[in-house]
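Exercise 7. Given the encoded structure of a 415-residue chain, write a plausible sequence.
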């Protein structure tokens, strides 16, 4: 099976000492460490707190493991996966052994990780967060499969969820015809797993918030009204859902994008993963989690939604390569697909036109809109041939430019 490159881990795993890897479930942490890290023992902590050496088949109670831990750290390189399930005495033992040997701890519990930084282990470990696949790595993976053009970038958008890598490797550009069971069965299961590990109950309110956001309710006031209309909260008051939104953000399921130009701090909310968003969108519109939908119709709905998901994809990619913060512009006449700021100044703006052709009128509108910003201006398209002409004072980036960026890791000087 092809392995998706993970630039955030590649160099770290070559030269680690004490490393703590954390992130939402099913972001590829375990798989990548298993495939790429050098270690002597890989131990997984079960829910009943037994440690299993998955290569040797040995099992240890916590007390047994605590007894042999000094010897293991002295003589072997060890990995402990789902280590948050262990009890405090193990953490104190690790603190006493700090600085010796090489060890990797992996956790998929964000709530536990936030508590961990207040624990005796604070400062002992190098920290690495693993989220969705970096867009540049996703592009490189799609290119390994022989894809190019519009197909390459759309597949890269999908495979940011690394648990879809096998499906993508098998079906390539036709993968969106074959996602039905993953969307209908696996996405709800994944969300349930995330809540279980966080020790938070997946209530109807949480599910409704995820559905509302997928249905285009992007402000807390809109989400609150949605829940109130369904009798899930007593008042139409955004304050009643603020903690729910914070929890979902901390779990890595949704993100909050700041609104630029408003005196009061305001955010737009959206799903982190387009795959999760699409599954909840289908469920909100068509009762997808319980009802059957033909795969061809799912493909049609995905084609309708993919321009939005490509905006998210490029926003994240540009934010990473320029090192800037994504924001949304509050003024309707200045609304753009992507805006990135440094401190309080917008430095990059971009429009994403994910279509087969752009006529002269639309091109003039793009030029006029982007000209209002004293910033780097970019038009993102699948291929150059969708343009009747090149716009003035606007850079045009297509799939070949993004492939070059993924290979170099940065924007070349000639851009």
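Solution.
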């Amino acid at each position: 099976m092809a392995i998706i490159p993970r630039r955030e881990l590649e160099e770290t795993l070559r030269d680690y000492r004490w490393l703590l890897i954390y992130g939402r479930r099913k972001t590829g942490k375990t798989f990548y460490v298993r495939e790429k890290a050098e270690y002597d023992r890989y131990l997984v902590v079960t829910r009943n707190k037994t440690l299993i050496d998955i290569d040797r088949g040995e099992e240890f109670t916590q007390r047994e493991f605590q007894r042999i831990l000094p010897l293991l750290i002295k003589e072997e390189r060890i990995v402990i996966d789902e280590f948050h399930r262990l009890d405090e005495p193990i953490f104190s033992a690790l603190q006493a052994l700090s600085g010796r040997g090489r060890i990797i701890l992996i956790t998929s519990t964000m709530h536990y990780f936030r508590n961990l930084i207040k624990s005796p282990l604070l400062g002992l470990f190098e920290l690495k967060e693993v989220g969705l696949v970096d867009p540049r790595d996703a592009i490189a993976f799609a290119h390994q499969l022989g894809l190019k053009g519009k197909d390459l970038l759309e597949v890269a958008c999908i495979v940011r969820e690394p648990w879809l890598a096998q499906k993508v490797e098998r079906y390539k550009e036709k993968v969106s015809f074959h996602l039905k069971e993953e969307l209908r069965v696996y996405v709800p299961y994944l969300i349930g797993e995330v809540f279980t590990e966080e020790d938070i109950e997946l209530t109807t309110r949480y599910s409704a918030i995820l559905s509302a956001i997928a249905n285009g309710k992007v402000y807390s006031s809109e989400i609150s009204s949605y829940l109130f209309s369904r009798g899930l909260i007593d008042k139409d008051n955004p304050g009643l859902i603020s903690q729910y939104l914070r929890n979902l953000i901390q779990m890595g399921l949704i993100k909050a994008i700041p609104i630029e130009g408003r005196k009061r701090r305001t955010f737009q909310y959206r799903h982190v993963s387009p795959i999760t968003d699409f599954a909840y969108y289908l469920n909100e519109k068509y009762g997808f989690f319980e009802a059957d939908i033909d795969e061809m119709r799912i493909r049609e709905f995905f084609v309708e939604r993919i321009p939005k998901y490509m905006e998210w994809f490029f926003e994240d990619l540009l934010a990473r390569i320029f090192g800037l913060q994504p924001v949304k512009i509050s003024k309707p006449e200045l609304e753009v697909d992507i805006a990135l700021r440094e401190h309080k100044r917008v430095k990059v703006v971009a429009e994403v036109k994910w279509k087969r052709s752009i006529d002269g009128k639309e091109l003039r509108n793009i030029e006029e809109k982007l000209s209002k910003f004293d910033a780097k201006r970019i038009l993102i398209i699948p291929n150059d041939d969708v343009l009747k002409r090149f716009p003035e004072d606007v850079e045009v980036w297509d799939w070949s430019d993004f492939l070059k960026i993924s290979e170099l890791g940065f924007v070349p000087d000639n851009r």
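Remark. The radius of gyration is 23 Å. Students should compare their own answers with the one above.
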